[in-house]
Amino acid sequence: MSTTIKTALITGGSKGIGYGVAEALIKDGIKVAITSRTQASANEAAAELNKIKEGYAIGIESDVRNLASQEKAVKTILSAWGRLDYVIANAGVGHFAPIQDLTSEQWQETIDINLTGTFNSIKASYEQLKETQGYFITISSLAGTNFFANGGAYNASKFGVVGFTQAIMMDLRKDGIKATTIMPGSVATYFNGHSPSAKDAWKIQPEDIGQIVSDLIKMPARTLPSKIEVRPTMPA
């Protein structure tokens, strides 16, 4: 390995939860590669992150729906830093509508990004995480165990992420790889076209999820919190 500094891949890391996780990991001395579907947005976010610690962030254009794209992202990290220790599968999308109005395109995009994207993320990084005895963390949602009206596509994808992560946890730990799913409630992000404002002060903040990821990585090797539910202390 070309560096002893640990590294992380964060999908959908140009804003919101992914960006908050990237900030936390850089402050912990971990180099981060953030992905976005456009190189411009990935580069812009990486430039801001490098203000925390110069040379600790790179931006990569990648689409989690495509396994080859994820494999290319991993190769880019290895070319830059020579190792991969942590993968945070964060990229997500939400379409909310009753089944009568939910289109097949909306269904497919939700499943492809939220669920298949998670599958592609571990398939692309498995060999490297096995080598470094690393950590695979998925960002699911409380919608992964709590169904609601208009949530057919989103619930299906997030229930799937929770089940998938818990199942592969049983597989991966045999290779020394930890796996955890984090299930946040309301988070102040740009998700689904929302623009965070002062009205979101009651919500979980992206940096709060970043702290959880940071704490997970610091847990003793013998201990694995495999599923974490996170809620605002006092909902509006």
Can you put this structure into words, describing what you see?
The protein is an alpha/beta fold. Helix content is 42%, strand content 15%. The protein has a seven-stranded parallel sheet with strand order 3-2-1-4-5-6-7, sandwiched between helices.
Question: Brief description of this entry?
Answer:
This protein has 236 residues and is an alpha/beta fold.
What's the mean pLDDT score?
96
* H/E element sequence: EHEHEHEHEHEHE
Alpha-carbon Rg, integer: 17 Å
CATH class descriptor name: Alpha Beta
Distance between the amino and carboxyl termini = 48 Å
The CATH topology annotation reads as: Rossmann fold
Superfamily (CATH H level) name: NAD(P)-binding Rossmann-like Domain
Strand content: 5-15%
Organism: Arcicella aurantiaca
Protein name: NADP-dependent 3-hydroxy acid dehydrogenase YdfG
Family: Belongs to the short-chain dehydrogenases/reductases (SDR) family.
GO biological process, one term: monocarboxylic acid metabolic process
Keywords:
236 residues; alpha/beta; Rossmann fold; 7 strands; globular
Provide the fold topology.
Elements: E1 7-10, H1 16-27, E2 31-36, H2 39-49, E3 57-61, H3 67-81, E4 86-89, H4 104-132, E5 135-139, H5 152-172, E6 178-184, H6 206-217, E7 227-230
Helix pairs in contact: 1-6, 3-4, 4-5
